[in-house]
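User: quick one, fold this
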Amino acid sequence: MNTTPTIFEESLSAYTAVGGKERLASTGLSAILLNRGGYSSRRGLFQELEKTGFDYVISMENAPERYDLEELSGRFPFVRFILIPEGLNQGEQINLGARELSSPLFFVLQNDFKIITGGGAGRMAERLYLSQEELKKTENPVSPFKRLCTVPGLINGRFETHPTLAAPAVYRGNVRTLIFTPRQEGLPSLYPFDGVGIYDRERFIRLGGYDSSIANPHWQLMDFGFRSFLWGEEICVTQHIKLSCEGVMPIADSTIDAGYRRFYLKNIAPLFQGDHARLPWRRFPNYLLNSGWDIFGAWEEFSRIRRWVRANRFRWNCDARTLNERWQDVGSGPEESP
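Assistant:
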């Protein structure tokens, strides 16, 4: 039984929405705007999004007070402003935005990123549809779109192409990532860099979205990416859409913390056998030694994740070791230790 949509809904927080009653276009692609500062003119930003022609725009408002919302919602009636609770992490914000939208595709953008190539929203959406030839080759396609998430290229403030292609690696027994500059169209990437990309909404919700309980953005992205590939989805880079960053490029914090240990239990520890995955009890002693929990706390967390794995066991297509073979040229497979 597929429990993921229920899990997705249960993880969402309460919020207030303002505006966004009118649809700007009918392209099938909307935008979710994450606001972390760094853009000088909010009006200018929404004008740029208006020119791109998104159906709707969801703007995640994380400032304690916004005195310009009434003015902006009147000028840009296709923008829905979401007043989010304090402390909501990036993944939770994307999950909320996905629930608010009905468009089959949504483009997650940071407010200090600007679309510089790729055409309008309609053109970007067109590129993601499966061609007639691809449809013929695909047995029982679950979606008319090519993949779960498409990651655009990124140019930094010095007009240099920024690495956005992520690949798994192991360093001193811990799972890490290596970041490369993509040189070809359609290469697989472990996760969307900084969460930015065009998502298939139906696939995203079916997958369960981002794990809101992982506070560290890096491990939240790693969890989303590993789960996507383990469950048979794809995240790929594109050369046809490029963004520029007007702020400071984010630096990933890959500190081994509680987020990593949850990521490990959900993605690295399970074994795939036959047609399903399982989290064996023999993983617990090693997890206890490395988790930092007392035995009762470690057992509670391990049991909780084991139940989650069992509930979704038939969604796995492979385990972490098999998945890692896709990136053999850049690192060895994940080891079985948190």
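User: anything notable?
Assistant: Residues 1-6, 329-338 have pLDDT under 50 and may be disordered.
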